[in-house]
Amino acid sequence: MTEIRTIHTLLVANRGEIARRIFRTAHAMGIRTVAIYSDADADMPFVREADRAYRIGPAPSAESYLKIDAILEIAKRSNADAIHPGYGFLAENAAFARAVGEAGLIFVGPTPEAIDAMGLKREAKATVSAAGVPVVPGYDGADQSRLVEEAKKIGYPLLLKASAGGGGKGMKRVDAESELEAAIASAKRESKQAFGNDVLLVEKYVENPRHVEIQIFGDAHGNVIHLNERECSIQRRHQKVLEESPSVALDAALREAMGDAAVQVARSIGYRNAGTVEFILGSDGSFYFLEVNTRLQVEHPVTEMVTGLDLVREQIRVAEGHPLSIAQSEVRQIGAALEARIYAEDPDQGFLPQSGTLLDWHVEDELRVDSGVESGSEIGIHYDPMLAKLITHGEDREEATRKMIRALRSLSIQGIRNNREFLIRVLEHPAYRRGEIDTHFLQRHPVEAEPADPTTGAILAALWQHEQRSAKRAVLPQVPSGFRNNPRRGQDVRFVLDESTVEVVYTHDGRDPGRFDVDVQRGDAATTHRVRVLESSGPWIVAVVDDARVRARVLEHGDDTYVHLPGEGISFAFRVEPRFPDASAAIPTGGCVAPMPGRVVQLQAQEGDRVTAGQVLLVMEAMKMEHTVTAPHDGTVRQMAVAEGDQVEADALLAVVDADGDDC
Ligand code: ADP
Ligand code: ADP
Ligand code: MG
C-alpha cells in the first residue's frame, strides 16, 4: 500500500501562464499556494494570485527561477509540503526533483530516476529502442569526437540536436557537409548556454513528418495509461504554435499502436505522473520516437478539453499517492480541441522575439484562455516570449477552428508585435482546413499578410478622440481643446501608418450631435463617408460607418493611437507624428544594428577583414536563442563597435562594413 500524503501547501517553482494555471486548480482543490518571483515579475498576475509570494532573486533565471537552494529555502519558510515545477526551468531537472524529495517535500512530477532516464535525448533513445520502440536513425553514441564522421555516414539533410535540449533550442538542420562544422559549433554553444551541457546527437532529417505526441500518465500503484494524441505539426523554429486533438492522420489502429508504444516507453522506466511521448509520423504511417517530456506540457489543455480531465488535478492526486482516477478503457475523446500559442514575436522578421510593454490585452469571446499577462504587463527579454494560449473545443475540427479564428479576431493585443494575425492566416489556409499539415507547413505555405485597409480604423480612432475631448469638456468646460465647435470647419487628424499618412477630416452635422461627414485621404485615394456615432465609453466606440455598424477598441499611448476592430479582426497602430527621429538616419551606410536587446556572444570578424555578403560577423544571444548578424554586402569591416560579452540595446550599432568600391 502506498501511503497517502495530503498536500496542504503547494509552491509553484515557475512563473507566468503556467504558474497561474496550477494555482487555479490548487485553489479549486482547497490547497494553499505559494509563488516565487524574480524582480522582473514582481507585478505579474501570477504573483498576486498566489496566497503567498516570495521574491527569489534578480531577473536572470540563473539567479532566480533556477536557484534550487533558494527555492527550497522559501518552501521551508512558507511551510509548503509540495513543489510543482511547471514546465521549462527546473521541470526536467532530476537534481531538483531529488533535492525536493530529500527536503521531505513532494515533487509533483515523475521520479528523479525517470527524469534521468529520459532527460538526455541520447540516453533516452537508447533506452526506448531497447524496449522495442522505433527511433529515428542517427548517431546517439557518447563519443562527441565522432560527430563529423557519423554525420557523413548518415547523409544530408541531417539534424543536430542538443542531447539536453528542449523547446527547439540547440537544434540545427544541416543540408551540406560545408555547413557541418559551423553548425556543430553553433549548436554546442547554444546548448551550453541554454542547458549547461553541449552534448549533441545527430539524426537523419525526416522529410515532412507530422509531430504527433501521446499524453501518458502513471501512478504509484503500477497503473500506466495514455490519454490519446495531440498533433503539433504547425511549428516554426521547431517549436509548436498550434496543437490539436485528435490528429486527422490517425485512425483507430494507428492511435492504438502509438498509444501502446507510449505506454511501453512509460512502463520501461516505471513512469509516474504526467508525461508526453513525442513521435514524428511519416506520411506512410511509420512513426519514430523523438523524446519523452517528463513534465506537464504547454499544450496539455488540448487533452483536457477532449478527455474532460483536469491534468493538474490528476498530477496532484497522483503525487499524493492516490491511484489514477480512470482506467484506460474509460478515457474519453469528446469532439476536437485546438490550442493557439500567442507569442510576443514578429512573424515578418523570422519570428524574432519582442519585448516591451503590453498596452492592451483583451479577449472578448468566452473561451479558455491560459494567460500569463494583462494590460500593462512588461514583456522582458529574460524569459520565454509566450504570452498566453487560447483553447477552443468543438464538435469537430472545423468547429474548433472556426471558434479559434473568431477568438483571435476579437483579441486585442497592443504595444508589442505578436503572432495573432499570423495565426489567423494559418487557420484560414485551405490546406490547414483540409488537415494537410506537417512540420514544414509554414515553409511550404508562407502565409503573408496583405496590408489591411485602415480607413474604418482611422475614422473610428479620430471620432473616438473627438468623443473623449467632448466628454472632458463637458466635465471641465474650461479645459482648452483642439476641438473647434464649428460645424462648418472640418476637424483634421493625420495618422501615420508605417510610411504612409491617413488624413481624416470630419465635419460635425450641426443639428445631430452623433452625425459626421468624414473625408479620408490616403495617398491619392480620397473617400467620403457618413458616420453616426452610437456610443463611446472607455476604450470603445460604436458607430455606423456608411451602412455598417462597427465597433472599435481605441487606446492612446504617447503619440500612438491603437485601434482594434474585433469584427474585422484587424489592428492598427497609428502615430500622430513620427515619435523618434528616424533611427536609421543615424546609422552609417553598411552599418549592422542589433535586431533586439541581447548579448554579444562571439565575434567572427575583425576590423580590416574582407567579408562577403551574408557572411556571419558576430553572434548574439537574446531570449535564449542565438541570432547571427551578417555582412550586408561584400566589402571590408571598417568598424566592430562591440566586444564579446557586451550587452546591447535594440538598434545599437554593432559593426560597419564598407562596400567594395566605396572610398569612404
Ligand atoms: P516541446 O517543444 O519539447 O514539446 P513544449 O512546446 O511543451 O515542449 O515547451 C517547450 C519548452 O519551452 C519548454 O520545455 C520550456 O522550456 C519552454 N517554454 C515554453 N513556454 C514557456 C513559458 N511560458 N515559460 C517557461 N518556459 C517555457
Ligand atoms: P525539443 O526537445 O526541442 O522539443 P524534439 O526532439 O522534440 O526537440 O524535436 C522538436 C521538433 O523538431 C519536432 O517536433 C520536429 O518538428 C522536429 N524534428 C525533430 N527531430 C526530427 C528529425 N529527425 N527529422 C525531422 N524533424 C525533426
Ligand atoms: Mg520536443
Summarize this entry quickly.
With 664 residues, the chain is an alpha+beta fold.
Overview of this protein structure:
- The chain is an alpha+beta fold and 664 residues long.
- The chain is 25% helix and 33% strand.
- The chain contains 16 helices and 39 strands.
- It has an 8-stranded antiparallel beta sheet with strand order 14-13-10-11-12-15-22-20. Strands 24-25-26-27-28-29-30-31 form an 8-stranded antiparallel beta sheet, with helices on one face. A 5-stranded parallel beta sheet has the order 3-2-1-4-5.
- It starts with 8 loop residues before the first strand and ends in a 5-residue tail after the last strand.
- One adenosine-5'-diphosphate is lined by residues 136, 159, 161, 165-168, 171, 203, 205-206, 209, 211, 235, 238, 278, 280, 290-291, 439.
What characterizes the major β-sheet? 8 strands, antiparallel
Number of helices: 16
Structural class: alpha+beta
What Rg, in angstroms, do the CA atoms define?
27 Å
Unreliable stretches (pLDDT < 50, length at least 5) are 478-488, 578-585
Distance between the amino and carboxyl termini? 82 Å
Chart the SSEs and their pairings.
Elements: E1 9-12, H1 16-28, E2 32-38, H2 45-49, E3 52-57, H3 68-77, E4 82-84, H4 94-102, E5 106-107, H5 112-119, H6 121-130, E6 138-139, H7 147-154, E7 158-162, E8 172-174, H8 177-195, E9 200-204, E10 210-218, E11 224-236, E12 239-245, H9 252-268, E13 273-281, E14 287-293, H10 300-307, H11 311-320, E15 336-343, E16 345-346, E17 352-353, E18 356-357, E19 360-362, E20 368-371, E21 378-379, E22 386-394, H12 397-410, E23 412-414, H13 420-428, H14 430-433, H15 441-444, H16 455-475, E24 491-497, E25 500-508, E26 515-522, E27 525-537, E28 540-545, E29 548-557, E30 560-565, E31 570-575, E32 591-593, E33 598-603, E34 610-611, E35 616-622, E36 625-630, E37 635-640, E38 647-648, E39 653-659
Parallel strand pairs: 1-2, 1-4, 2-3, 4-5
Antiparallel strand pairs: 6-9, 7-8, 7-9, 10-11, 10-13, 11-12, 12-15, 13-14, 15-22, 16-17, 18-21, 19-23, 20-22, 24-25, 25-26, 26-27, 27-28, 28-29, 29-30, 30-31, 32-39, 33-35, 33-38, 34-37, 35-36, 37-39
Helix pairs in contact: 4-5, 7-8, 12-13
Bound molecules: adenosine-5'-diphosphate (2 copies) and magnesium ion.
Magnesium ion (MG) is lined by residues 278, 290-291.
